[in-house]
Amino acid sequence: MMNKSSIILGTLVLLVSLVTLAESTHNYKVYVDVNSNCITSKYNKCGRHPWSAFRNLKEALSYVSTYFPGQDSDSDSDSDGWDDNWLDIFGFKKNNGGGKDSHDCFPTIYVSRGVYSGNLNKELNISTPVEIKSKDGPSSTFIDCMGSGNGMRINNNPNFILEGFTIQKCSSNFGGGLFINASHVTMSNMVFRDNFASQGGALAIQSSSVIVSQSTFINNAGIEVANGVLVNDSTVNFINSNLQCANDLYCNSGAVTFDGNTLYSNSSITCASTKECLVTNGDISDSTADDDNYISLCGKVRPVCQINSNQSNNGDSSSCNNDGVCDPLTENCLTCSDCTQCKLTGWKLVSIAGCIPPINNQTGCSNSTTKIQTPEIINFMPSAPCPVAGILSSYVRVKDDGPISIRLQAKNMGVRLYVNNRIQIDAYLSNLTEVDTVREISFVKAHPHTIRLEFFSLFSETRNISLSWRTSNNDPYLPIDGFISQNVCNDQILDEEEKNETSPFYCLSDLQSLNPNNITFTCGDGLCTEVPEECVFDCYSILSPKCPAQAPPAPSLLDPVDTTGMLLNNQYLFSLPGLSNLAHGVDILTGLSRVVPIFAFDYCDNSTFTLLQNSYRYQVYTIPKGVYATLTPSCNYNAETTTYSSSTSMAREKATSTMSSLEANAGGGNSFIKASANVAFTKENSVTKASEIENKISGSLHSTEVKCIISKVHLVDQKLHPIFVRDISHAIDKPQMIQVVKKYGNLYYKSASLGGRLVQSTIVSEDYSSKTDSSEVSNSIDQSYGASINSPVLNVQVQTTKSTSSQVSSEQMKSFEENSLRTTISSFGGPAGIFSPDQDNSFARFSDWANQVDLIPVPIDFKLDYIAELIPSHWKVKNSSQSIRELWMDAEIEWFGQVYPDKIFISRNMTLLQFNFNAAPTDIPNALSLTTIAYNETTDVYEPLLTSNNHTIHNTTTASVEAVFPSIIEIKSLVGLNIPSACFPLTIIDSAMSRSYRFNSIADTPTYVPHQVVVEYTVECADCTDNTYLMALVKGSKDTVKKIFQWKSFKNQKSFTVNESTYIGTILSLNLRIVMTLEEGEVAESKISLQVKSLLISQTCGAPNSDGVDQSGCTPASVPFTTYGYTHVYQPIDAKKVYTVKTIKSYSTIPVIYYSF
């Protein structure tokens, strides 16, 4: 039985089918695209949609003729060439006159831009009523016969329409471009160029009715008669067209009419007989040869072409009667002073005879000015004596920001091309026989650009020149569309009259626009006329051009006539889930992505992206250029718990895992890496939650999490987002750049695992931990976590919950919960709010979350780098010698200081060193020098400089002094004179690197004992006696060491040393207990309190091998080598705080902060 949903689905499908059928019966459309990949087969039919277009015209016409064969196949009595059965199927009805209601009732072939050549695009026999229309016009769509064969033969066709093509280089006995016989033809917006035939170089029209509108004839040739158009027993009407010099018309019989907008003044019109052929410049529908309502043009002889009317030029001629009134039909601003304002399409051509500008003075030279439609000249000034020269100039606009390939071709010419008054191609003095060169030039769409082409020739041979462009390697080179504008307000062009406040053409809105007479290349004027890399402020849009953010639909795979196939073929592909997160910068404090992106994951063409198939979800994902990705679905069903000394150390550990790939070449050296890591992730969600509960209980912090990884992504070629480029280029000082840093963050993802993780932090009291077996504590944490991720509420019944590793009794869990605190679940990725504590009665399970996390994944394991490294070092701040990268770095340092004013010294390429002498020197008259290993910046790369660098401190009389040095990797030795031995030992602390060096004497190398821990302190205890003892526990991540001291010796020695044979791990904490006897476990009641006023812990790593590498894992991964070994420095979280240890049958913990990465 059919259910309700099936009925609804069926109804929707029926509605879609009816809508589709209605659309298909309105107009029958066929598509052709020279770049199409569609191949017609049994299962795949091309042509019905733009994305499944035919690749050539012949296939499209053959397809159309199947439905409209051009002859009756039905049984009616008419003979109009229409198959009425097919007409009825497609809903086309004929009128009583035997024709169609309109041309919408027969098929239209839409042709995309490109050059259509070869046997499948010429000698096309067309007898079927059809309209062939280009999408982008004759400047972009060409039918090129390449010198052999004619373009089309229109024979016995009742209705043929052709619009928007350039037909070129075609040949035949009759009608090189088109041969029309016994047909009704309408042509509009056509260009016939370089075609030839025995008769009718462009068109041969016989026994037909033809309308030619908005069309141009250029350089066509008829060997016998009619370079342009041959008319035999036909009616031809020219509307707003252009038949100029060397485009002859020959009328054998019939009637030809030119409307008032058709240019024919320089044409040669020949009639075989004035009685049989009527050629007029008016409407002849109601006229005869004996009427006075027309002027016969038969016998008009073409005058000799003037110098500026090149034989093959596509220009026009205009007159000037100097009456002070501009006649737009015959006069223009290029050639007539009557016209002071105009806007024209095309190019200004100045033709010069007898001199070569700018080498010779043009005084006395013959020159003339005209307008041509496109920058193409064949046989320039053939009758003029050498030398000849010319200047082509125009304004151009582009549709999109970015690079465009400009092609300059010349024969027997010296040429020089200027774009925005900057030379781009210079072969002016070469005067080569052949020039064919391509230059990629970037344009912005925000304002017009000037193009000026200067050329000359000393050769008497044929002189040709052309200028074309294309935006993509898949497109053909097309003539550049230019325009001429003079004294037109708001055209973004500043003419001289528009600057004059007393002029009628004064234009306030154009005062900051492009001035073609004075292009100054001033960065910051809003005009991108400079080299883009030298003025990012003006040219940011072409340094990172915009592209669509979604990949195009896949090529058609199903029959588009079928409704389901049509819907499926129109599907757009999805991007990889979670990938958009990697387009954003990362806030170093929170670890979260910022709102605005720094990268543009877009699709500039149809070929540079890759696909990734998800079989589980039945989806195919797109991966943009520069991104590598793979699906690696996996979930870790065993909770992982990590122990930290505090929430601060938890943040440091996150910085360890995410920033460990950073090397010293990343934005200012190791010092900056270490220092900036001190503030990293301190406000991350799970860290913030942990910080809130650690204020309520003193103990160890445990972070437990479960991960699900869906995919892994690696960025290899990042494209900066145009808005990011705009923002960094428009920040011209430090305060402005600080706002940009806040907006975009400090870091970016280099690679990431996308998925989800569930995190919970637990603090267990130190007293409970010391009395309870560590495995029981661990199992209790796991069981507590398991309860949390199976329910949104935390008071779950313990009896029903088991640990992932072993079961814990109810009594044990009760004791654990009384001595611990835990946070709510922090959920990263997956459905939002599934573990929300507000949902008191709903039971959310881990499986529910895991089953959906692949739909909304986020970066969970990732490597980061500094955004500063993305900014090219040669990009400059507006009108400044400082680079944008340097300004970003300076702003970032100042921002760090604003966020954490009490943190350690943070600076790029500089290190703060603290010198702690054993006793204050009375005087150091000479400099104390350090021999160091540093990083030396060469261009954009930091390379180890193994030679010595000497840095100094001068006269000091204090026991502790700080000094700023260039960023260093390692201090090798100490050099100085007249320093008393009492000043030693000397400890030097690199604050940013959390590294220390100990020197026992002058001219010494650092003292180094592998795996040694030294605890230095200042303590006070007013009530302590000789019977007071101290127990110290040094806790490492791998082991714990215990030491017991008598108070008297402990106070005086000010430090103690722990020597171990192996690495005890990262120091987590120093625990102190006051005891009254030496018997272990005995603690007396006492009110004695111990105050720890200062604390410094140093830990040496394992001895480096011959390659300077420590095998123990103690030395930070970012330190590439060490000569004498690495010594970590640990200090309390708050170095200024006085810690008080009281004895109330317990011991207290002094937490420490560590900077080891």
TrEMBL record:
SMART domains: MACPF. InterPro entries: MACPF, Pectin_lyase_fold/virulence. Residues 1-24 form the signal peptide. The keyword Transport does not apply. PROSITE patterns: MACPF_2. The keyword rRNA-binding does not apply. Residues 565-903 form the MACPF domain. Keywords: Signal. This is MACPF domain-containing protein. It comes from Cavenderia fasciculata (Slime mold). The lineage of its organism: Eukaryota, Amoebozoa, Evosea, Eumycetozoa, Dictyostelia.
